[in-house]
Amino acid sequence: MNVAAPICSDTACQVQVDGVCRLGNDPVEGCPHYAIETDEIEVPAEEQEPRVAQPVPIWSSEALLLDDLVALKRRRQVRTIALVGEQKVGKTTLLASIYGAYCKGPFADLTFVGSETLLAFARLQSFALVSSERGSPTIPRTSRRDPLSFFHLALARAGGEVVDLAIADRSGETYTTARTSTDVIATLAELRHADRVCFLLDGARLASMDNRTAYTRHFRQMINALNDSGALAAGQDVEILSTKFDITRTADQDEKNVEFLDEYQARLVSDFQKKGLAISSHHICALPKADRGVGLVGLDKMVQRWTARRPLPEVAPQPVHNATRQFDRLLAKL
Ligand SMILES: Nc1nc2c(ncn2[C@@H]2O[C@H](COP(=O)(O)OP(=O)(O)OP(=O)(O)O)[C@@H](O)[C@H]2O)c(=O)[nH]1
Ligand SMILES: [Mg+2]
Q1: CB 137, CB 100: distance < 8 Å
Q2: Do 46 and 70 share a structural domain?
Q3: Which of 10, 139, 177, 213 has the most C-beta neighbours closer than 10 Å?
């Protein structure tokens, strides 16, 4: 390989480094060895340094584990959502459906700008596609052995501001156990990190006359268990998402199911608001398999709630009543 010729033919001279001629010529251009035409020096191939490329970290793009979420939260302002619900209620399908909506373009007034869990999302999404060669789209069950994982979405508002969402997914069996075990509740790390906790209510089980009574009791018990054990922090937004609205609406009872669901949700909201929870309830349909005519229900509004601008913190000084200093009493007089 050819390398650039040195500026001075005197190999002991450091002029190239410190600008001082070894023979004392000042200016250095006066030196006979300086800047004379020499051929480029041929460096034998065996003396050349082997080019060793530095290892490049490759983003796995798999779902984030708890430690990864903590690391992401150090880098960005992430809003964390916990999806709480028993097995087969539709937690993982909801995730796949949100990602699927962004694959088609802007959704809920937001544009997809990135994700650190693309591969995990794509894997979920593939089951919902015809290429999976399934008769109908079905998401594989989340196993109890699967660790708690988080799916990340970076979404941009019209003005360019980016909102980061991390949505937790874990197996429904764990939540079923948590309903009756405070020890398990203490292990639900996603609740400690969550800005918003969503309780998923299975609209299909609610539409079934056989399951309804036991199921509604268990569902209430779940919110009670988490609330009474202090797992729902003050200031955390809580929402009830009744899933599979296509089934609730089209099952035998038709309108009566929806009526029952709405009354049940309203009762829950009122009872838990009295206990101090900031709770609301909403219908959703993430995969209208039973009636395609129903389409996606409530997902756009849900994403808008999850990404809504946060109110600015109250910074005005608060009046101090019965303050000892006259100066502090001034504010109370206003
Ligand atoms: N008809 C209908 N089926 C749905 C809907 N959402 C989910 N499902 C179906 O409900 C079943 C369970 O959905 P999952 O998303 O796997 O439920 P999960 O809560 O993640 O369940 P676990 O992983 O067991 O905790 C799947 O067969 C879904 O296709 C919906 O909106 N409508
Ligand atoms: Mg699942």
Answers
A1: no
A2: no
A3: 139
